[in-house]
Amino acid sequence: MTRVWRCLQATGAASRTRTRCFTTSAPRQEIRSIAELPPRVNPGFTETKRHDLLALGWPSPPRNILFVRKDGDRVVQEALLEYTKHVKSTYPDTNLVFEPYVAKQLHEYFDHPVYTINENGSNTPYHEKVDLTSTLGGDGTILHAASLFATAKSVPPVLSFSMGTLGFLGEWKFPEYKRAFREVYVSGAPCHLDDQPPPAAYSDGGAGPQTSSTGGWSDIKGKKMGRSRNSRILMRNRLRIGIFSSTGERLPHEPPFAHADNQCEDIFALNEVLLHRGALPHLAHITILIGSPPHQKTLTTAIADGFLVSTPTGSTAYSLSSGGSIVHPLVSSLLLTPICPRSLSFRPLVLPANTLITLRIEEQNRGKEIEVSVDGVRRKEGLRTGMEVRVAGEEVRTAGAPGARDWFGGVPSIVRSGGAADGEDHWVGGLNSLLKFNYPFGEDG
C-alpha cells in the first residue's frame, strides 16, 4: 500500500526545532472487474394467499448490488452518492457495482473498490454476479437496467426509486431509501438468527475477509422482518425476440443486446419491440402470422406506419399512445398494436402470452428497410424483404397448482409491503395519479 509521509515542524520558545512524522493510507480508489466477486445469490419467490404478489426470500444476504442512475442530472448524482455510501457503511459486506462509465466518474469518491464489467470484450456478464439491481431515475432508467439483462433468462430483483420525468414503474420515493433497502436486504431472514445452524463460509472474491451467509443479517441491529413479512414482488413478463433472414436463418442481435461470442439466440424486452417505416415516406407492408409451424395461420397483411408487440408493462408506453389497450401487468398476455394503419378496421389485439407472433416484411414494401427497435434502442441494420421478427411471451413459472410452482423468469420488481399496503393494487394507484385515468375534462379532479 502506498505510504504518504508528512512532517510537521514546531518552533519552541528557545528556537529549537522539533520534527514529528506520521503516515496516512492513500484512499483505495480502485475499479475492479466483477469477475472477482462471489457468484450471484439467487432469491426465491413464494406465492402468497392474500394477493397476487410474490414474497421475496434470500437464502443468504445479497452482496453484489448494481446501481443504475439517470444520466445528466446533478440531483440524481448526489442522491446516488448518498445512497451508495449509506449502503456500504450500513451493510459492509456489500459490493458496489456500476456501469463502466459511471464507475470511472464515481470511484474517486469512495475509499474502497467499486466493480464493473470489462470493456475489452472478455466480459463476465452482470447476471452471473449481480444479486440486486437498484435504479434512480424514471421509467427509462428501469428499462435501461432491464436491458443490461436482455440476454439473461433470470433477472435479479429490481428496487426502483422514482426520480425521473415519469415514474409509473418506479415504486419508491428517494427519501425512503434507507427503509426500502433494509426491507429488501433482510427479506426472508430468520427472526432469531442465533437459533439457525451455522452455514458454510464462502469466498468473497477479493472484496474482504470470508463471512458466513448469515453474517450480514446477524450484524444488523434492530428488528428483523421475519419470514412472514417478506418484501413483495410484482413479476413483470418480458418478450422473447428472434430475428430471422429471408431463408429462415436465425441472425445475431446487435449491441447492447448481443449475446456472448455473437451467438444467435433470442433476447428479452420488458416493454416492446417496434417495426417502423422510419424516415421513409412509404407505408410498411407487413404480414402478421399467429402460431408456430406447421399450425401457423396468417392473420393479415397490413399497411401501416409500423407495428408494436408489447408486454402488459409496455401497454402504458408507446402502445397506449397508439391506441392500444391498458393491461394489468399480472395478466399474462401480448399486445399487437398497429401504428397509423391505412385501414380503420385494423384494431389493437390482446393475445395469450404463449402465442408466437411473426412479423414478415413483404415484397410490396417500397422502402429499402424497416427499422427495428427493442425497448427504444434501434437496431442499426434494418429488415429487408422476406426477413422476420418472431415474438413470444417469456415463460416465468413452471406448471402446477398455486403454491407448488417455481418462478424462474421475468423481471422481479420490488413494490411496497407491510401493513395495509400489502393488499393495495399499486397499478391502480398509478393509473389514477400519473395517467389521470378518466380525469374530468375542464374540471379540477
TrEMBL record:
Q: Name one GO biological process term.
A: NAD+ metabolic process
Q: Identify the stretch(es) annotated as Disordered.
A: 196-224
**KW Transport (keyword) present:** no
**Which Gene Ontology MF annotations are present?**
ATP binding; NAD+ kinase activity
Keywords noted in UniProt: ATP-binding, Kinase, NAD, NADP, Nucleotide-binding, Transferase
Kindly give the InterPro entries that the UniProt entry links to this protein. ATP-NAD_kinase_N (IPR017438), ATP-NAD_kinase_PpnK-typ_C (IPR017437), NAD/diacylglycerol_kinase_sf (IPR016064), NADK (IPR002504)
Family assignment from sequence similarity: Belongs to the NAD kinase family.
Q: Which PANTHER family match?
A: NAD KINASE, NADH KINASE POS5, MITOCHONDRIAL
Name of this chain's protein: ATP-NAD kinase
